[in-house]
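Entry 14. Ran structure prediction on the chain below.
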Amino acid sequence: MLYNATTGPMVRECQRHLAQWTLQPIAALMAEEATAKLGQPVTVDVMQPLQAYDAGGRARAAAGVVQALSQAKEAGVDASLALELVGWDSS
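Output, structure tokens:
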């Protein structure tokens, strides 16, 4: 992560691994202890905030899908069949 040529996606992936494999298990232990002491269910989730980093990538992917479907329609390709071929529900 400290290498000068490291890219944003690499940093995000490192953050995701840290959260998933180190911080979330600790958070689960903390939640278990808090639940026992407070008598109410407690959850601590460190993964949810990381999803904000993925919003831009998801938006670009969605735009690409919409553009591809538009081009398919212009070319006369059955979009429902195309979505079915890649395992996506077209409904």
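The longest helix spans residues 8-38. Will compare against last week's run tomorrow.
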